[in-house]
């Protein structure tokens, strides 16, 4: 339910009680600084893939993904792909770090308590090419998460591991994968493992595989006793699905059965008081013929995720995602689309997530970017979006009882506030 709706442009000035530091105390287009008890989720748009920066209520930090698609691909530089934001003076990972520095809690050393890679695709963890620079302090090249971690220390790095359902470090398996490896996943993984090894031996990096069913692997590091209602529930990884009871899980894929990277994505649910947020990487729920796939990850996780306040669109809103059972069950008040391609979203996906036949009530949709090709196809349905361009920030306050959405200028290094929506009441 929305208690009120506020739209603030650069020329306007608004103040909302309870959304942190009052906007009237700042310039009219400045995002309010983080303060104790507030949780923020920053969906960062670089035009080169996913990145989301989380500040938990006690200032514990998490980065999910660090996309960095190679500029050597015609796809990346075509009209099908978003342009780099805010400009090309820095690499996408450098812009991610620049963003984190701007909004990092004041007063403390800047580092990431956690970083998590959902899966091993270029738009989520980077891509090696001949132009990547070698790190001065280690035997690895700089792309995606390795460049982020080279500039901003990471305490704990989580991913889906490398040994299930296939052993990605096995030579024959690598050779087989490399035969159809247009975006250099194997080469990038080898570089990623060099980064992990070096950072672990020299800088104390802890590397862990996300554990499906766990609810204490990602936790508050500074003042957990002050926020007992906060938790991160690991829902799925590698097709291992949490049952909803204790730490019990079951497998969708057998050892040796490799379905591609997307279905193996890490999926987590973050809760703070009454507020719930879900993000699931590139999982999907539509089969090759366009029908609902009851065996897909979306179909299996929906019952244990349940209704949430905010959800990111799985697989950027690609037409193979957001199946009917998933949308009906998760039914967020706010959908957030992290995208970079004219494939995102599929028009049929937009029909499902806006359908009041699948779940009643209002819902708002925000996108980091919407390309002209997709605007032409979607047409009148574009009116369902509250914003089609910019960094999207969810700011949760009052112990998780309320939240608001800010849209920040992704064309500017200052990242001014372009719009503010809410407050919304958490479920």
Count of runs of 4 or more consecutive helical residues: 10
The amount of beta strand, in percent, is: 15-25%
- The rounded Rg comes to 20 Å
Mean pLDDT comes to 93
**Uncertain residue segments:** 1-25
Which bin fits the share of residues in helices?
A: 10-25%
The count of DSSP E runs of length 2 or more, i.e. the number of strands, is 18
Shape: globular
- For the record, give the distance between the C-alpha atoms at the N and C termini, rounded to a whole number: 8 Å
Give structural notes.
With 427 residues, this protein is of the alpha/beta class. The protein contains 10 helices and 18 strands. The protein has helices at residues 74-77, 92-103, 122-125, 145-151, 171-178, 185-203, 297-305, 324-330, 347-353, 372-378, and strands at 39-43, 52-55, 61-64, 112-116, 154-159, 206-209, 230-237, 240-242, 249-251, 267-272, 275-279, 310-312, 334-337, 364-367, 385-387, 391-397, 402-408, 417-425. It has a 9-stranded mixed beta sheet with strand order 6-5-4-3-2-1-16-17-18, with no helix packed on it. The longest helix is centred in the middle third of the chain and has 19 residues, at 185-203. The radius of gyration is 20 Å and the shape is globular. The model is unreliable at 1-25 (pLDDT under 50).
């Amino acid at each position: 339910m929305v208690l009120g709706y506020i739209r603030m442009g650069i020329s306007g000035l608004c103040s909302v009680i309870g959304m942190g530091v009052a906007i009237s105390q700042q310039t009219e287009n400045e995002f309010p600084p983080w303060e104790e008890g507030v949780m923020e989720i920053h969906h960062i748009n670089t035009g080169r893939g996913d990145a989301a920066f989380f500040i938990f209520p006690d200032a514990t930090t998490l980065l999910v993904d660090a996309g960095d698609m190679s500029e050597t691909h015609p796809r990346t530089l075509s009209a099908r792909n978003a342009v780099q934001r805010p400009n090309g003076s820095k690499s996408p990972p450098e812009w991610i770090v620049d963003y984190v520095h701007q909004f990092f809690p004041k007063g403390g050393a800047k580092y990431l308590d956690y970083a998590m890679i959902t899966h091993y695709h270029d738009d989520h963890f980077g891509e090696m090419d001949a132009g990547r620079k070698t790190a001065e302090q280690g035997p690895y090249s700089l792309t995606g998460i390795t460049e982020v971690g080279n500039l901003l220390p990471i305490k704990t790095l989580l991913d889906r591991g490398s040994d299930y359902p296939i052993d990605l470090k096995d030579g024959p398996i690598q050779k087989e994968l490399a035969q159809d490896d247009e975006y250099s996943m194997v080469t990038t993984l080898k570089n990623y493992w060099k980064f992990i090894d070096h950072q672990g031996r020299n800088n104390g990096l802890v590397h862990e595989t996300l554990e499906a069913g766990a609810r204490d692997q990602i936790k508050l590091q500074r003042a957990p006793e002050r926020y007992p209602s906060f938790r991160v529930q690991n829902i799925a990884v590698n097709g291992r699905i949490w049952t909803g009871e204790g730490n019990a899980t079951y497998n969708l894929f057998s050892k040796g059965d490799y379905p591609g990277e997307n279905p193996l994505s890490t999926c987590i649910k973050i809760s703070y008081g009454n507020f719930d947020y879900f993000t699931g990487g590139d999982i999907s729920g539509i089969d090759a013929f366009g029908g609902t796939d009851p065996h897909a990850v979306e179909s299996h996780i929906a019952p244990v995720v349940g209704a949430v306040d905010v959800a990111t669109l799985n697989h950027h809103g690609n037409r193979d995602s957001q199946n009917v059972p998933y949308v009906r069950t998760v039914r967020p008040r706010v959908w957030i689309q992290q995208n970079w391609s004219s494939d995102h979203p599929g028009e049929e996906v937009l029909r499902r997530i806006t359908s009041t036949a699948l779940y009643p009530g209002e819902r708002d949709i925000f996108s980091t970017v919407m390309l002209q090709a997709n605007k032409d196809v979607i047409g009148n349905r574009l009116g369902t979006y509250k914003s089609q361009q910019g960094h999207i920030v969810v700011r949760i306050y009052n112990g998780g009882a309320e939240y608001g959405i800010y849209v920040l200028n992704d064309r500017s290094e200052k990242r001014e506030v372009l719009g503010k929506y809410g407050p919304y009441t958490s479920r």
